[in-house]
Design a protein that fits this description.
Elements: H1 15-27, H2 37-57, E1 64-67, H3 70-84, E2 91-95, H4 100-111, E3 115-119, H5 129-135, E4 140-144, H6 158-168, E5 172-175, E6 191-195, E7 206-210, H7 236-274, E8 278-281, E9 291-296, H8 301-310, H9 330-335, E10 342-346, H10 353-374
Parallel strand pairs: 2-3, 2-4, 4-5, 5-6
Antiparallel strand pairs: 1-7, 6-7, 8-9, 9-10
Organism: Actinomadura yumaensis
Catalytic activity: (sulfur carrier)-H + L-cysteine = (sulfur carrier)-SH + L-alanine
Domain Aminotransferase class V: 4-359
């Protein structure tokens, strides 16, 4: 889709996923828990998919469970860890810029009598490793730190946080939804959550990794599926397609990430040069290769997104978790940057440089036109 620049929300279905999905719909639709031939074939395909995902993530296949989404993976990891470590304490540590799935679960934990420490970030959106380590206490049951921010692209100090958690004997959950397939996620964590549609897999498939030796107890009623970790009938075709997409996507990104990163650098440079009163946010160096966010003064973000859509470009507001509620982004607020007139551009795998150049050509006039219409802006 020409003009599609919202890969951080969802990556278009990878051709490898489409091919694998169609084959699995024909040959792997039976119940993998049964014993007849078709069911056994479905079980083989499910186990193969698990092993392929595990291979990319560098973990054991029996540590991988398929969920219905990245959000479900986050919630199961958090609630299950907090339940299993209740005797240790009820203290939870999260960063201020976590995905809403983490923060909403933290709010539920507080309502249930637990305590939460929120670690702030600097203006680039990055957590200070020393502050994160200082938040850990003897009664800390779990700590959460995303691998990279979903709104501004800043890469977080996961390796340093994992080392601090290991020293404090606190499990670490890493929400790696924006990183898996795009860049290496440092080791040392206890839980990892990801979502297949972020790497060109089908929607409705998430990944939850629970490392061996990590205390976890399902917060839901017992169910026999997915090693008693995720209830409900397994989406075998979806898992097969997700695994195929992840392998293909990871292979392509190893070579294509520098190209995408150069295009993002081009956007960062051009926007600040051609659009008055604009702020590009997020770390300019320690960042995801495909994502850039900027804020325009005197412009409403929703109006700018609508205008860009009219011109043929699909982008999103940086406030990706709250775009439909019109609330300011909690990420941008935590960073202390402009929270309105915000645009997140995230490049899909197949983006062409000409698409980026066309976007940069129409952006300045679009911003100026909205400012004139609103009767605001620089003199």
């Amino acid at each position: 889709m020409a003009g599609y620049l919202d890969a951080a929300s969802t990556e278009p279905l990878h051709p490898a996923a489409r091919e694998a999905l169609l084959r699995a719909l024909d040959g792997a639709w039976a119940d993998p828990a049964r014993l007849y031939g078709g069911a056994r074939r479905a079980r083989v395909r499910l186990d193969e998919a698990r092993a392929r995902v595990a291979g990319v993530l560098g973990v054991r296949p029996d540590e991988v469970a398929f969920t219905t989404s990245g959000t479900q993976a986050v919630q199961l990891a958090m609630l299950g860890s907090l339940r299993a470590r209740r005797r240790v304490g009820r203290h939870l540590v999260v960063s201020a810029v976590e995905h809403s799935s983490v923060l909403h679960t933290a709010e539920a934990h507080e309502r249930d009598g637990g305590s939460v420490t929120v670690v702030g970030v600097g203006r680039s959106g990055r957590v200070d490793p020393d502050e994160f380590a200082a938040a850990l206490r003897p009664d800390t049951a779990l700590a959460c730190l995303q691998s990279a921010n979903h709104e501004v692209g800043t890469v977080q100090p996961v390796a340093e946080a994992a080392e601090a958690c290991r020293a404090a004997r606190v499990p670490l959950l890493v929400d790696a939804a924006q990183s898996v397939g795009r860049m290496y996620v440092p080791d040392g964590w206890s839980f990892l959550a990801a979502s297949a549609h972020k790497w060109g897999g089908p929607p409705g498939v998430g990944v939850l990794v629970i490392r061996k030796g990590t205390r976890w107890r399902s917060p839901l009623p017992d169910d026999e599926r997915e090693g008693r970790r995720v209830p409900g009938f397994e989406n075998v075709p979806g898992a097969v397609a997700a695994a195929a997409a992840l392998e293909a996507y990871r292979s392509e990104m190893e070579g294509d990430a520098p190209r995408l990163s150069a295009l993002v650098d081009r956007i960062r440079e051009s926007v600040t040069r051609t659009v008055p009163d604009v702020e590009v946010v997020g770390d300019p160096v320690r960042r995801l290769p495909h994502l850039v966010t900027f804020s325009c003064l005197y412009v409403e973000g929703e109006a700018l997104l609508t205008e860009l859509d009219r011109l043929g470009f699909a982008v999103s507001s940086g406030s990706s978790c709250t775009a439909d509620t019109l609330r300011p982004s909690h990420v941008l607020e935590a960073m202390g940057v402009i929270t309105h007139g915000n645009v997140r551009v995230s490049l899909p795998r197949a983006v062409d440089s000409s698409d980026v150049e066309r976007f940069l050509a129409v952006l300045p006039d679009a911003v100026a036109r909205l400012r004139r219409t609103a009767g605001v802006g620089p003199a």
